[in-house]
Amino acid sequence: MLAIFKNINGDKALWAVVALLGLFSFLPVYSASSNLVYVVGNGTPIGHLVKHAVFLIFGFGIIYGVHRIPTHFFKGLSLIALPIVIALLIITLFQGSSVDGTNASRWIRLPFVKFQTSTMASVVLMIFVARYLTKIQGRKITFRESIIPLWLPVFLVVGLILPANFSTAAIIFSMVMILCFIGGYPFKYLISMVGVGLLALVMFIVVAKAFPDSFSNRVDTWESRYESFVNGEATESGYQIERSKIAIATGGIAGKGAGKSVQKNFLPQSSSDFIFAIIVEEYGLVGGVLLMFLFLFLLFRIVVIANSSSTTFGTLLALGVGLPIIFQAIINMAVAVELFPVTGQNLPLISSGGTSAWMTCLAIGIVLSVSNKMNKKSSNTFDIDETNPLEILSGQL
């Protein structure tokens, strides 16, 4: 054990905030699991707690292993992993299954584990985009020459995720746009790609409406959630939001206390999508604000690490895999207070779930790898001392 701690490198503040989030997650997950046990009839509270502990232990093992990988290795790994991810997305699209009442074919079953492929696709694609943007630094790039090496993989991944998981597809596409903007990709081309993306979405909706049996009525689900958000109609998502707001309202300033939530017995997905509502009910406004502060501090450390990197790839890599974690956390908390329609996004490092937690840990391990290289001040021949894109962006703004 001492040898492991001795070999822990990278940004210690990032390690600390991730450890705090992971340790805190045990309390709300154990409390909210009563919904799965007594309402859904799935397992026991202790069983869910042990399962969550196993997921987190394995996740921190991923962080430890990944943070020791030299940063430049991820360039080649993304080229190898992207075709594998695309193949898994195709399999998931046609053979995926529902899990714990999730109304979408987002999962495939591998030996001993159920795997949500879109979470892995997000991390791999962001590494791939960071690699491409590093490659074109200092060059004038035309739109035509970037179609196949950049936009074809992006639209292929997003398009394969879209039929089953609109929110994840939208997050990935948005993060790619932000990363390309930071990486210096021509802004006029980005505007064009946003237009292409919106056009593709409209075409998908039209086709899905024309052939509803082909897409498991996903468009109807999107419409239902949007109408519930705008008009407050009595749908399943409307019921979830109502219970979520009751939980938050009854939490008060200090909350009811650990394990004393009432709404966890009525709120579907209380241990995953709506766990923030349970946290506020049990720990009050104080607990909710502290949790938001931890995610803001996580964002601060990611930006510090990215800005301190001596290479363009390190900067773009840290931002590419780190920012989606914060973006997902913001969306999860915004859904709980009805600032966003219901999306089905977990709260990173807090919600129960295996593959989501593992891919978050993978992303954190990559960010720590960037900080590890920065701390060692190594001069690897694969890395070229380049201008930091954050400095270029700040100068332009």
Plain-language structure description:
- With 397 residues, this protein is an all-alpha fold.
- The protein is built from 14 helices and two strands; from the N terminus they run H-H-H-H-E-E-H-H-H-H-H-H-H-H-H-H.
- It has a two-stranded antiparallel sheet.
- A hairpin with a 2-residue loop joins strand 1 and strand 2 (113-116).
- Helix 3 (45-67) runs parallel beside helix 13, helix 4 (73-95) runs antiparallel to helix 5 (117-135) and helix 7 (166-182) packs antiparallel against helix 8 (187-210).
- The longest helix is centred in the C-terminal third of the chain and has 34 residues, at 275-308.
Salient structural properties:
14 helices; mainly alpha; single chain; 397 residues; 2% strand; two-stranded antiparallel sheet; globular
Which secondary structure elements does this structure contain, and how are they paired or packed?
Blueprint: H1 2-6, H2 12-40, H3 45-67, H4 73-95, E1 107-110, E2 113-116, H5 117-135, H6 143-161, H7 166-182, H8 187-210, H9 218-231, H10 236-251, H11 275-308, H12 312-336, H13 355-376, H14 389-396
Antiparallel strand pairs: 1-2
Helix pairs in contact: 2-3, 2-11, 3-13, 4-5, 4-6, 5-6, 5-7, 5-12, 5-13, 6-7, 7-8, 7-12, 10-11, 11-12, 11-13, 12-13
